[in-house]
Specification:
Length: 274
């Protein structure tokens, strides 16, 4: 096994299906020595006005969205406390407290985030951009699908600028699913190479790793996040990487790790997150 840990996982109480204890047990059964829980940390004053929010209420996972840092802390403080108890109960496993954070670049958010970090002291922080600011609202990647091509290009540009800023911030241990828009079929064309390369270079500069996220292996585009084009840039700029299963249920823990390990070798990615 190339990697004896799994760190990108989601649990009950947020948008995962299984408890942290079950995730730990499954990771142990699969031979992992370290397991991290990284639930969504998505804070924005207008997050509950988004198109996405009512769906999350219906689906029972609206807990991943907070309008304020007080609200997110009220969820993460007891959550981290539970993980500390699980540490004591599972001494054979190294259990880490992570978070998958949606990055926003305004000063209010940055100040609130730093305050929250002082209280929570996470072991690692995953940076992501499921939302972008557009016309005074926040658009989730899924909202882009029905826009016209011109608007989609605008949205993609905003997306990549946001990812670049996230990389430049140096706040994150690594970046998640960096080419997320391909989830809805966008940003695949070679014309996006320049935008991607600016984000990868920023990550290289701040020593921010970029994960290989194995949740995207589709019939029509059989690859993980990121694409071969980005993997090549990561190798050229000596960016560190790791495998992430992004498991929202235990059956997905360690999914496609063998295939993704082959990519690490194929692209000669030398630096692995330890
Ligand atoms: Zn994500
Ligand atoms: Zn995730």
């Amino acid at each position: 096994m190339l990697q004896d840990y799994t760190l990108h996982t989601h649990t009950i109480g947020f948008d995962g299906r299984d408890s942290a204890q079950t995730v730990i047990e499954r990771a142990r059964d699969l031979g992992f020595k370290t397991v991290g829980i990284s639930n969504h940390f998505i804070v924005n004053p207008i997050i509950k006005n988004t198109k996405m929010y009512p769906y999350s209420v219906k689906g029972g996972y609206s807990n991943i969205y907070s309008s304020s840092f007080d609200e997110v802390l009220a969820r993460f403080v007891p959550h981290y406390h539970e993980l500390e108890i699980l540490r004591e109960q599972n001494p054979d496993m190294k259990i880490l407290r992570g978070m998958e954070v949606d990055f926003f670049s305004d000063i209010k958010w940055l100040n609130g985030f730093e305050m929250a970090l002082k209280i929570l002291k996470p072991d690692y922080i995953i940076g992501s951009a499921h939302f972008i600011k557009y016309n005074r609202t926040l658009l989730n990647t899924h909202d882009w699908k029905n826009a016209d091509t011109e608007t989609q290009d605008k949205l993609l540009k905003i997306y990549w600028t946001n990812v670049k800023h996230a990389a430049e911030s140096g706040l994150f241990t690594w970046l998640a699913h960096i080419d997320l828009p391909k989830k809805v079929g966008l940003g695949i064309d070679d014309k996006w190479e320049n935008c991607e390369s600016r984000a990868v270079l920023a990550a290289a500069k701040t020593n921010t790793a970029i994960e290989i996220n194995t949740s995207f292996y589709r019939d029509y585009l059989y690859e993980p996040y990121p694409s071969n084009r980005i993997l090549k840039m990561m190798a050229q700029n000596n960016v560190a990487t790791l495998l992430s299963d992004d498991a929202h249920e235990i059956k997905n823990i360690g999914r496609h790790f063998d295939e993704a390990s082959q990519l690490i070798k194929q692209f000669n990615l030398k630096r692995l997150v330890r």
